[in-house]
Design a protein that fits this description.
single chain, 158 residues, alpha+beta, 4-stranded antiparallel beta sheet
């Protein structure tokens, strides 16, 4: 009993650093829809480190400035190649919920996806225990992978 309690307490004392990225190909609209969820406190810490500015993602008065920081950061740390061609993401918006912050992006003019190469090092510049989980759907298929720091590259074929 004491041994299992000790293991549980050790687990609780070691925080998890996880980011979840969803990438969906919308064939009808010919777009890639991207959403990223990060723990808000971790995201704020990394944004502060990279921008040298105090960040509070729950501050409604700073929403426009925070969105600019979020867009710039994610666009540098999440790179996508569709069928060998590097594509540009366009920031749609962000929202904070409980302990997480979502950011939303879109890539236009993507009629189909045969291969998606992803370089995802979100929050790696803040935490060397970071785990990036990715869920990708295209062509009626869904695939997932997990990237443990420092691994940042993944490929999906459909």
């Amino acid at each position: 009993m004491a041994a299992s309690l000790f293991k549980w307490l050790i687990f609780l004392s070691h925080p998890l650093y996880i980011t979840v990225t969803n990438i969906n190909h919308n064939a009808k609209d010919r777009t890639l829809e991207i959403s990223c969820k990060m723990f808000t406190n971790d995201f704020e810490a990394v944004l502060e480190k990279t921008s040298h500015v105090r960040i509070d993602l729950s501050d409604a008065k700073s929403k426009a400035a925070n969105d600019k920081l979020i867009a710039d950061y994610v666009e540098k740390h999440l790179l996508l190649k569709v069928d060998g061609r590097l594509v540009s993401m366009h920031f749609i918006g962000s929202e904070k919920e409980e302990d997480g912050t979502w950011s939303y992006f879109q890539v236009d003019n993507i009629p189909s996806v045969k291969k998606l190469d992803v370089n995802n090092n979100l929050l790696y510049d803040g935490f060397n225990q970071e785990i990036n989980i990715m869920h990708v759907s295209a062509g009626g298929m869904e695939k997932s992978t997990k990237l443990d720091y420092p691994t940042a590259a993944a490929s999906f074929e459909f």
